[in-house]
Amino acid sequence: MTPVLKLTISQEENSELPVICNLIEIAFADMQESDHQEHHLVDKLHKSDTYIPELSLVAKTDQQEIVGYILLTKVEIVSESEVHTSLAIAPLAVLPEYQNRGIGPVFGPSVIIGFQKTQIYQRFAGSRQEVFILKIQNDENNAAQQDNGRRFL
After folding, report:
1. CA separation for the pair 51, 33 (Å, rounded)
2. CA-based angle 8:10:14, to the nearest 5?
3. What are φ and ψ of residue 49, in 5° steps?
4. Strand partners, 74
5. Cα radius of gyration rounded to whole Å, the chain
6. What 3-state class would DSSP assign to 13?
7. Helix, strand or coil for residue 57?
8. DSSP assigned state of 3
9. What contacts 32, CB < 8 A, 6 or more positions away?
10. In Å, what is the CA distance from 123 to each residue of 130, 132, 133, 150?
11. Strand pairing of 8-11 and 144-152?
């Protein structure tokens, strides 16, 4: 039986970026689909105007080891007549020895809380914009199942 993993999800601290970049490099090392540059992308995104500190989150064990990371940044979706601000996830990374243990889905509620602290959310809060919310449920085998719901602000 796999021991219960207790995690704390928190906003990244500035001093943690080197550890995060190392985690990302390790997490993507064996992925054939990867160009193995994700850690460089995160470093660049941190320096860009698309970076939202509240949406740069780490998962830490009780021993304060960072074992997971997720970053959401601002993106603009441009059509011929409109520009919409949205969020992009890149990357979501978990150390290999912690993968397939439900860490990725644990970020969901923290992302929603972090999003509510941002200026993007504040702009939408007064309008009738439709927001999609990812609901996470764990089955008996602790495998995450995703159920997309939606609500209006």
Report:
1. 25
2. 130
3. -80, 0
4. 87
5. 16
6. coil
7. strand
8. P
9. none
10. 13, 16, 17, 18
11. unpaired
Distance CA 140, CA 77 (A): 39
Query: Where does residue 101 fall: left (phi above 0), alpha (psi -120 to 50 degrees), or beta otherwise?
Result: alpha
pLDDT tens figures, 87-135? 888 888 999 999 888 887 777 655 555 555 555 444 444 443 333 333 3
Q: Token pair for residue 126?
A: 């007064």
Give the pTM.
0.70
- Could you report the per-residue pLDDT of 98-111, keeping only the tens digit for each? 988 888 777 765 55
Nearest to 67 by CA among 119, 29, 115, 16: 16
- What tokens were used for 51? 């970076």
Retrieve residue 123's tokens.
């702009």
Tokens of 63: 């021993």
Name 133's Cβ contacts closer than 8 Å, sequence gap at least 6: 112, 148, 149, 150, 151
Structure tokens given for 98? 């912690």
Please check whether residue 117 is in contact with residue 54, taking contact to mean a CB–CB distance below 8 angstroms: yes
Tokens of 76: 């603009």
The residue assigned the tokens 């970020």 is 107
CA–CA gap between residue 57 and residue 109 (Å, rounded): 11
Distance CA 107, CA 102 (A): 10
